[in-house]
Amino acid sequence: MTDTLPIARSVRELRTYVARWRNQNLTVGFAPTMGALHDGHLDLIRALKGRCDRTIASIFVNPKQFAAHEDLDRYPRDEAGDAAKLASAGCDLLYAPPREVMYPDGHSTSVSVAGVSEPLEGEARPHFFGGVATVVTKLLLQCLPDVAAFGEKDYQQLLVVKRMVRDLDMPVEIMGVPTTREADGLAMSSRNAYLSPEERIVAARLNVILREAVEQLESGANIMTTLVKIERQIFKAGFSEIDYVAIRGEDDFLPIASPIVRRPARLLVAVRAGETRLIDNMAVGAMRP
Amino acid sequence: MTDTLPIARSVRELRTYVARWRNQNLTVGFAPTMGALHDGHLDLIRALKGRCDRTIASIFVNPKQFAAHEDLDRYPRDEAGDAAKLASAGCDLLYAPPREVMYPDGHSTSVSVAGVSEPLEGEARPHFFGGVATVVTKLLLQCLPDVAAFGEKDYQQLLVVKRMVRDLDMPVEIMGVPTTREADGLAMSSRNAYLSPEERIVAARLNVILREAVEQLESGANIMTTLVKIERQIFKAGFSEIDYVAIRGEDDFLPIASPIVRRPARLLVAVRAGETRLIDNMAVGAMRP
Questions:
Q1: Are B113 and A108 within 8 A, CB to CB?
Q2: What is the pTM of this model?
């Protein structure tokens, strides 16, 4: 077991590692992150290790996916702690480019994805997916891994990345990794660190509400009725605000037109506990006949 | 000498050729075109052959870079003739994807480049560079050549592609290839086929006017005075319309603020002979002291 992890800080260094592995016929898995790593990120590495010979995690807090009023400056950063966690999970390389490597002076190209990026998170955070699409394109083309892993926690982001990779013909396979949860079911997130002890108790109610709703939907409950019920329960649990509660098709992310769920879908929510924005989602199977 | 050229029509076929060459440690050069090939396109292949072991040309008339009123439908197409020309120039593979390979249903990702794409052609043809950036990204990522060649005839496009490749960290070198001209100096273009015999005579005046202006600028002529003089000469020569006559920095494509040319620049024009839009450009060296 190793405690230290090599760190690449430039595209050239990153590509030197990848080229060396490729010359040895080793496959490469890649997990792009914004750092402040928790067990959910380490599950990305673990999932990649099941598929690839070598794994790389990147840490870059991407300014282009934060709006001016958002938490770019106070977003948690702990590179040394992150590197130790990655090493303990068996990661082979940390890629931690400084901002001037990612966005040198004169940088003026952006990638945008229409359709799947527009509702829900796209409405709540208009800058978000443009920033994500651009930085993920850069990271994937800098690294050119065989497989890149993204968490289902950010389910819409996963679909945006899959759409983009297909549309631009990037030679990379995108793997979705199931959401990692705390013992009480709260979806792991770097932003959970913002929660006060009281808000942390409220936050844990979200996954319980969703899990119950999924059961009801899979038993044939009416979609609109269930969504309204979820909203009522969220406020009752002590959340301060709801951005959205929605059901969308699992792959196409289109609204479900039928009164009950007849095809694989996803139940998605964005709420606030105090000032902290939390998102979660769960798969909804087609109603069992 | 071979007269026939293998043709790939899917990304998978294209990548099979490229992978085979890579396994033999051969380097790959790529020239994306819209077909209707002339000697200027073949010069791209010849330039690539000086740098790479194998060369690929693509032919795809990209609908995304045409506006509704433009000439997408009547744009000249002659795949058999193009293939024969490429074979005679020593090209190793033609990539001719059908529209559904490039833009399958649901395609919704686009690449855009701010800054260098905005003036001149960007003003005259607002759809153009977005369409170019998206299709070139796809073609480069489908092929992943070592070097891709673009003609200096479309000088602003060359700068847009260079900027985009750098900004998105595509692992491809972009090579600019000097404009190929007819015996009378007319820049070769697939759209020259639209010219009537009378317009063809007018068209040939453009390069003469530009060449004289470059000489004067390099001898210290005032920029504004020279641009006005060029415009007067263009109308006098019988052109029906001027989109722009401009001088820009060779690399940054910024306007030249000084009264005379003090750093490497480019003189660029877009005009119409009859209904046919023609562009041309020439390098302007910094004034010799």
A1: yes
A2: 0.96
